[in-house]
């Protein structure tokens, strides 16, 4: 079985277990990581997860992220096709938001614009 954990799930292992939900989620992630180590589950990672982990300002959380991501057997690469789709969705969202602001009686009638690099 292949499993993709987002960075929030991976980092749940270091969260303060102040709520039962957090404790249960951390336990579930711990079990998944253990099953990856034994080869019963194939962990899948992505360039987006690596990028997100690199942006984490806390060294202990970065170290945990790298140690979990290093166990992945499959890497999902970002493609220009996916980037183009994301840009299109964001542009549509900005246009819709601009129409909403105009219809809500906003004093500005300017368009919202999106600049993606």
Q: What keywords describe this structure?
A:
disordered C terminus, 2 domains, 3-stranded parallel β-sheet, 117 residues, mainly alpha, single chain, 5 helices
Description:
This protein is mostly helical and 117 residues long. The chain is built from five helices and three strands. It folds into two domains: 2-76, no CATH class; 80-117, no CATH class. It has helices spanning 7-11, 20-37, 47-54, 59-69, 80-103; strands at 2-4, 42-46, 74-76. It is extended and about 55 Å long.
How do the strands and helices of this protein lay out in sequence?
Layout: E1 2-4, H1 7-11, H2 20-37, E2 42-46, H3 47-54, H4 59-69, E3 74-76, H5 80-103
Parallel strand pairs: 1-2, 2-3
Helix pairs in contact: 3-4
Task: Report the biggest beta sheet as strand number plus sense, adding barrel if it closes.
Answer: 3 strands, parallel
Mean pLDDT: 82
Q: What gap, in angstroms, lies between the N and C termini?
A: 36 Å
Structural class: mainly alpha
Helix content: 55-70%
The gross shape turns out to be extended
Work out the number of β strands: 3
Quaternary state of this entry equals single chain
